[in-house]
Amino acid sequence: MTTLKEVCEHICLPDPMKRKVLEFADEFDQRRAESLSPALYDPSSWEKGIKDIAGVLGEDPDGSKMLTFMLQRAVDSHKEYEKRGIIEIIFTDTMKFCTRFIDEHYKLYGTYAFTWAWWFPRQISLREFRIGALEYEMIEQEEEKLINLHIPADADLGRESLRKSYEEAREFFAEYYPEYRQSDMVCDSWLLSPVLTKLLPENSNIVGFQKAFELTHIDHSSDSSIRWVYGRTDIPIQELPEHTSLQKNIKTYLLKGGSIGAAKGRLQEEPWKV
To answer: Domain check: are 92 and 202 in the same one?
Structure first.
């Protein structure tokens, strides 16, 4: 897999967006933005770099131009994967993050659009990898090397799935990034909110996920659960959908004046062990 077209096909980019990406790639002079590419590899310059790239790309209402530029960088990332010997499935699963959000946008709004340019540098710079159910991002906080866990919307949160992902991730970092082999794994998510234990049965996968963490901070005011449970934040509470038991339970709790919040935690040793 060495071309933009091949990357688009392997990550299952929707055909309408794939056509736009390939058409723009043919007409855009890459030299106009090449000098801006290095900003995508340094976390401290991500925000400014993306703004600068957007300025060069011009009007881009559906984000397809930015997606094109970043997928071209993903082609370069693939070469680095090959050089390091990282298997193909990890590259594909990692880069599919953009497809997932493009599909979600279509489901919610009826149009294809890419609005997650601000997140894509993590994958392009080989700082975040999807390994099985979860995504693992190498970060540094106060000079401590940590691995930040992210939970994709399509993740299987069953115990066996989580255990397999965790064990494979430990092997991955030990082999390719040994400086992170012993790093603590942390997570900051609405999925760790203690409130959820009141709304879900003891045997729910979310409760099982929570039990593997030692909480270090609770944010009672966070409303991030609205975005992830209902897809969008512009729906009045009374009109929130009730397609799942989780949606029903959270809606009822919100209507009573409650807040789901979020929490930070450190993954315990031997999480999800059998």
So the answer is: no
Residues 115 and 224 in one domain: no
Tokens linked to 198 = 């009141």
Residue 2, pLDDT score: 78
Burial of 178 (0-12, 13-18, 19+ CB in 10 A): exposed
- Residue at 235: amino acid letter: I
Inside any domain, residue 196:
yes
Tell me how far apart the alpha carbons of residues 242 and 141 are, in angstroms, rounded to a whole number: 39
User: Contact, 121 vs 46, CB < 8 A?
Assistant: yes
* One-letter identity of residue 8: C
Q: What does the pLDDT look like over 59-91, one tens digit per residue?
A: 999 999 999 999 999 999 999 999 999 999 999
Task: Give dist(CA 11, CA 7) in Å, integer.
Answer: 6
114 and 35 inside one domain: yes
CB atoms inside a 10 Å sphere around CB 84: 11
> Domain containing 206: what range?
187-267
Query: Beta partners for 86?
Result: none
Is residue 230 in a domain?
yes
Where do we find the tokens 């559906």? 62
Q: What is the CATH number for 191?
A: 3.40.630.120
Q: Cα Rg for the chain, rounded, in angstroms?
A: 20
User: In 3-state terms, what secondary structure has residue 267?
Assistant: strand
List, in order, residues 6 or more apart from 141 with CB less than 8 Å away: none
